[in-house]
């Protein structure tokens, strides 16, 4: 009969492996109320705190986005090949856009699962005058009171071709639209929620949209449970030996 100590050690190893595989990151900058200026560098930041907007720590795509929560539009790729376990910031030169308003955000996509995504909150972009306009739409397509709009790139430098400490992007020739699950009202849930409006609650606590777990998060949770189940199955086999 295998000793209790050995069984406990195996169980601990299984759950440690599961925890390591699902280490989350949380986008934190741009934060609510952030205003960037065209042509000036800005900092995109994330951390490993287990809070809203979670994503596996290894991600491949960082995209510049606009649009509503359901029909998100990719304006361009900011960076690829980033590893959230070795870096927590990315310095990016703000491009020229034609609507100076809080209608822009960034989307992080997992390198191992393209449906595993996380978002920053919406932030504003302005020119040297500092002038801003109100987002064209006051509510989302599902009626939630989260302002949004559709911006466009006017010009920009070439995008970075490899992971680096900083970069900029060029206008996308055919911006992609990404359909995602609409958030539901739940102020206490943890979720990889679509971006919320700027100027709302604290950036890393709970999304102003306060979404319930999205399809991507549920998928990630399922993977963790499945992995844990396989590990415990192995433990059971040892115990029966």
Automatic annotation (TrEMBL):
It holds the Pfam family Kre9_KNH. It comes from Mortierella isabellina. Residues 191-222 are annotated as: Disordered. InterPro entries: Kre9/Knh1-like_N, SRP1/TIP1-like. Residues 1-16 form the signal peptide. Residues 30-125 form the Yeast cell wall synthesis Kre9/Knh1-like N-terminal domain. This is Yeast cell wall synthesis Kre9/Knh1-like N-terminal domain-containing protein. Keywords: Signal.
């Amino acid at each position: 009969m295998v000793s209790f100590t050995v069984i406990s050690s195996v169980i601990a190893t299984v759950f440690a492996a599961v925890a390591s595989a699902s280490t989350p990151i949380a986008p934190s900058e741009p934060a609510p109320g952030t205003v960037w200026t065209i042509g000036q560098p800005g900092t995109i930041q994330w951390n490993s705190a287990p809070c809203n907007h979670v994503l596996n720590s290894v991600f491949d795509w960082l995209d510049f986005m606009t649009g509503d929560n359901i029909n998100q539009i990719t304006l361009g790729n900011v960076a690829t090949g980033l590893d959230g376990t070795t870096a927590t910031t990315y310095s990016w030169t703000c491009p020229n856009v034609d609507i100076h308003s809080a209608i822009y955000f960034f989307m992080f996509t997992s390198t191992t699962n393209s449906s595993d995504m996380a978002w920053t909150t919406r932030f504003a972009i302005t020119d040297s005058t500092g002038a801003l306009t109100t987002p064209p739409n006051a509510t989302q397509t599902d009626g939630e009171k989260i302002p949004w709009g559709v911006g466009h790139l006017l010009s920009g430098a070439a995008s970075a071709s490899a992971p680096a400490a900083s970069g900029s992007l060029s206008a996308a020739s055919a911006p992609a639209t990404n359909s995602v699950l609409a958030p539901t009202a739940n102020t206490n849930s943890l979720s990889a929620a679509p971006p919320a409006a700027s100027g709302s609650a604290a950036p890393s606590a709970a999304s102003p949209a306060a979404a319930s777990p999205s399809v991507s998060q549920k998928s990630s949770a399922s993977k963790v449970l499945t992995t844990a189940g396989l590990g415990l199955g192995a433990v059971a086999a040892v115990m029966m030996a």
